[in-house]
Structure formats: structure tokens, C-alpha cells
Amino acid sequence: MFTVYGMADSGNCYKVRLALEQLALPYRWVDVDPARGDTRSPEFLAMNSNGKVPTLELEDGSFLPESNAILHYLADSSRLLPAGRLERARVLQWMFFEQYSHEPYVAVARAILRYQPPDSPRRSELPRLLERGGRALAVMERHLESEPFFVDARYSIADIALYAYTHCAADGGFDLSAYPAVGAWLERVKAQPRHVPMAA
Amino acid sequence: MFTVYGMADSGNCYKVRLALEQLALPYRWVDVDPARGDTRSPEFLAMNSNGKVPTLELEDGSFLPESNAILHYLADSSRLLPAGRLERARVLQWMFFEQYSHEPYVAVARAILRYQPPDSPRRSELPRLLERGGRALAVMERHLESEPFFVDARYSIADIALYAYTHCAADGGFDLSAYPAVGAWLERVKAQPRHVPMAA
């Protein structure tokens, strides 16, 4: 059985839970709270020296960090990851896009509004985060105007990776009504078999 | 034949060139300068709507962006990418680490020192970039204290991805002498067959 060390309100951790649920893989969930310092403890750093959630414990007792690497591991040889060389690279294309061009803006704006006090100096980051996150949403909108899912016209871990922080982007101040193709894709993702929402 | 749309001084573009050279794959290189606005032109955005280099043109005329997705595509079924499910996920673990926890600090500090004027207000970002980039180098150091390469004791695209901006981290103000295991790994990477340096 897998063990997920994660935080329920983190999109990166939700990705892993959604994939485990959709692949019907049994797992145990251990709550880890970075704000409480849980990810900087010697015990946690021994599992993941980068001190981040999610971290997956495999059946052999070894540990795998990085949400999108975990998705790739779980989905390998399943319907959630195409087998073709180019299709796999395209799945990774969108997953690297998510971690570099989307998450650092869309997820961070949400984290500031949800976890920082109203007078936090970090609020000054919001205009830049909204501008850069809006660019990422526009790239997604353009792609989804002519495609039902991110790769090969079928649901994959690329969709799971991008769904995690896009579906709750309004928490960070993003107006999703400006991206109708993204909105329609969110509904298609939500309609997939064995979908589970982020909140526990 | 592949075509790389890239910028010679970019580590992300260098990754692709190094893999093509080491796999002995023929390619054409087209210089693209983001500072000149080349990546915001309608022609470039039609190839990659995210407006970034490198972008690879495949033999069928389609385009693949994201340096690490390109590495995965090029190295698939080669000695540079292990075949096992867990080993592949570990390669991706380090490549996602590179794009999320390393490049945004190590590469950005270098870009500010190389391309911004000495009185640029962006210099105020440097202390934070050096602190966060130093954390990434410390994670690498800890791993390399007991491993010759990032995954499975052999050279792979995980090493190529991390070498690209680590070997020139001093350009961004990082002191690599503080990371001796990283320094020894840089030498092992440089000694690989068909290695080419970043500068043209």
C-alpha cells in the first residue's frame, strides 16, 4: 500500500490523491503541515531532503517526491498516461508548463490570500502573480479552444496536474469567467469516473 | 532532421543541444532572442503559445516546447533514460526539482547579473535568489555525497537538466566551492562521451 505525506488543502497533494482514487489504488494519507514546520523536521528531511509535500512512500519503503513525478509513476502503463513516445512527451510538456509557468503564480496567489494576514507585505506580490497567472490561463484557453483535453483528445495526468490549481484559481483572485474554454474543460475533468473534490 | 529554436547562452536551450550531441542526432539551430522580442512574434507564438525557448521542431513539422519534455522525447529508448518505471519517475523527480526549486533561482540570478544594467532594480531580488538557489545546491550536495549521478548510478537526462545551470552558477554569484560533491559531479558530467560546452 502507498502512503502519501500531504496537506489536504494543497493542489500538489490533491493531484496525487485524485490519481490514486481514479486508478483505484489503495493508500494511506498522513497529514503534514508545512506551516507547522513538519516538512523541516529531521524525520521528514530524511524522506525528502527538499522538504516539500507531497512525498509518496512506495511499497518497498522508498520515497518519491515531486507531485508530477509521482503522477507519472502512478499512471505508468495505465489509461491516464499514453504509451506513444510523442504523446508522453506532450503530457510532460504540459506538466512542466504547470510547474514553471502556472503553479508559481496561480497557486502562490491563492496561498497568499488564504494563509497570509490581510496586512501581509506579501500582498504586494499579487498584481504580478495575477498578471503572470493570467498569461498561463490564456495559454490553456488557447489550447482548449480546439482540444477537449491537453493531450491526444483524452483525459490524462496532464489534465490532473493542471486541474489541481486551476479549479480553485478564484481563491487567488483570478476571474475564470474570462476563460470559457478552460471552464468547459474543468467540467469535463469533474465528470471523469471516480473524480473526487479537493476538500476532504 | 530536428530544428531547435534557441538562444546560445540559455541553459534550458543548452540542455537540448547537449542531448542532441550526445545522442548523435542531426539538427539545425535557429537563434531566437527573447530580449529582441523574437518569442512574442505571431510566428513564434504559433509554434509555442507560451512564447519560450527552447522549442523543438520535429521531423513531422510539429513543435515541442519545455526543455525537460524535449529531453525526455529525445532520450526515450536511449542510454540517457532508464527503462524501469521507478527509475524513470526518479529522473522526472530531479527534472521537476530542477524547474521548480533550482532554475527559478540559480538561472534567474545569472540572468540578472548578465543581462540587467548594474543599477537595475531587479538586483534587489538577488539576496532571495541566492538563498533559495543555495538551498537547491545543498539538496544536490546531499544527494551527490553518496551517489555518482542523480539516478541509478549512471548518467541520464536528469544530470543534463541539472548540469545546464549548475555549471555556470558562479555567473549568478553562487560559490560552488561550498558544494564539493556537486563540483566532483560537474567533472564527471564534463567527462561524458561527446560532451560539448555551453558557449558556442
Q: Beta-strand percentage of chain A? A: 5-15%
Counted up, domains of chain A total 2
Oligomer: homodimer
Radius of gyration of chain A: 17 Å
User: In percent, how helical is the residue content of chain A?
Assistant: 40-55%
Number of helices of chain A: 7
Numbering strands along the chain, what is their spatial order in the largest sheet of chain A?
Answer: 2-1-3-4
* Largest interface (CB < 8 Å): A-B, 34 and 34 residues
CATH class of the largest domain in chain A: Mainly Alpha
Which term fits the overall shape of chain A?
A: globular
Order of helices and strands of chain A: EHEHEEHHHHH
Q: What ranges of chain A have pLDDT less than 50 throughout 5 or more consecutive residues?
A: none
Can you tell me the CATH architecture of the largest domain in chain A? Up-down Bundle
> Between the first and last Cα atoms of chain A, what is the distance in angstroms?
20 Å
Structural class computed from helices and strand pairing of chain A: alpha+beta
- Kindly report the CATH topology of the largest domain in chain A: Glutathione S-transferase Yfyf (Class Pi), Chain A, domain 2
Mean pLDDT of chain A: 97
Quick one: biggest sheet of chain A?
4 strands, mixed
